[in-house]
Amino acid sequence: MKYYGKLILVSVLCLLVAVLVILTNGNKRISFASGEVSQVVNEETGESPKPPEGYDQEKPVLLIYDPQEELSVLYKENIEDTLKYMKRSCETIEISRTESISYRNYEMVILASQGIETKLKDGAGRIFDYVEEGGKFFWGILQNEVENEFFSSYKKMGVIDYGDYLSFQKMEFNEELLPGMKGEVFDSPEFEDVCLFVRLDEEAKVYISADINDQAIPLFWTYDYGEGRIGCYNGTAITGDFYKGIVSGCINALYDDVMYPVINAKCIYIDDFPSPQYESTSDIVRKDYNRSVKEFYRDIWWPDMQKAANKYDYRYTGLFIATYNDIVDPDDFVFEAPSMEQYYGNSLLRAGHEMGLHGYNHQSLAKAGEVPDDMGYKAWGSADDMAASIEELLSIAENMFPGISFSTYVPPSNYLSEAGREAVVRTMPDLTNISGVYTSEGEEGAVYEQRFEIAVDGIAEFPRVTSGMLLSDFERLEWMSALGLHGVFSHFIHPDDIFDMERGKGENWETLLEGFEDTLNHVNEAAPGLRALTASDGAKALEVYQELEPVLVYDEGEIRGSLKNFRGEAFFFLRTDKTPVSKDDACLITSLGTEGDGPYYMVTAKKAEFTILLKGD
Description:
With about 625 residues, the chain is of the alpha/beta class.
């Protein structure tokens, strides 16, 4: 009995210690690697906040598409991606099979096919009846012919007159479709598209116009019909990958008030930094700055880059590459440390930035036939050889930068084979994220294309959206579209742009720097308060976003939120024409865009349950 009594006493003491540990660590503050971003992480207990009062299971969005239409299939996939990012449920149906569908069972209907005239067997009338009773309909693409269905419906869409198909390459955002977009003008052959000449009822709200010989043709507008609302996109380019954010803006415009979670991150990657490229020679900087390449980078380029980061609040992730040889046989690996690599690496780290891995050399981790021949790269013989190159790079890095862990990998020239990815994951013990590209559109060959997501192996797939110091109109639209959907600015720059005629466009460093700073400032104006993160911080932010399961109830004059898997902070974009005010300290609200008074806001949830009051009309 004495033995059992002692055992019970010990058990009770252990239980008390365990309870004490839970109480003192249940809200443990865990900092990201950079020390800049921290969050309260609540351990999973199997419990979650109750859904807000008045919550009813959200109806899904119905997406109508045509599997026989290539453009429709692409558009369908991009809309599905968009809705997934916005954490909205979606069901799809072929355009020829809508007869059995009750549209009233859906929150919104989206048309992603150009075949409404010939393939929508039950006609568009039922959809407009659904809208008249309070439904939402996004006519998402210009039809390839205008006949009976359009003729019987166009006035219900706010059109009072229409004419011929017209080509255009210039468009203007008349309203804030996404944060910071009002007043933006985009003009380039890359935007070439076709629209239908239309004149609209004065009650229609035009968000985007095509500019054709100084005549504004509505490109996207909304129109209230009965108790519901219709949105019409009068073009076809919206089907592209970079228009996903534009799609989200069109969806948002169908609501008076709408919220969706975002990642909230701005990340900048520096290609080949540190690397041996600073040992090269060039007449350009000798002529303009009376310096060698080494002196230019040391005295001008890197100090200016650090000033830009500090002035505009950004964090860099430099991508270490050891050598530019083309050796792909591990038995032949060699390395002679250039004089400046260690200097730049240490300077990068001391300034609070991050160093990721790019490669032992610049040969993409792929076997024969997996990278376009004109890239001039050598193929690796096996995944083991690829892994050996990463091991060699880690060994070099340990000698040059002792004690530094590497969480980020960016594939050279954006090519990374399946075997190459496996090699990277296998050999980088601290790997948390890989950064490829947001889309393969415009790229040559099978580049490493990504979605913003956590892969099944736990690695964050965090793509770069744009690159360069001087952005074209199309690249400007790319980052604004991605920012509006994901709450992310993910950008890639090359230190040698001044020496590259294609990227640098023959401009001097002052012009390149001015273009870069203009972009940094533009992002800050569009989304004040966007968090400056390194790549590894961005990976953690993506994980927090992906795990979050929000439940939102839109009621008269307020929005109530309940967050499952809440980890201390969560971020949303809110679109409303009213004035949003937090009911208490459960959330913070910041206006987005250049005008400072909405309609877009950043909501920072500080608690798992919050209420936002919507004041005014």
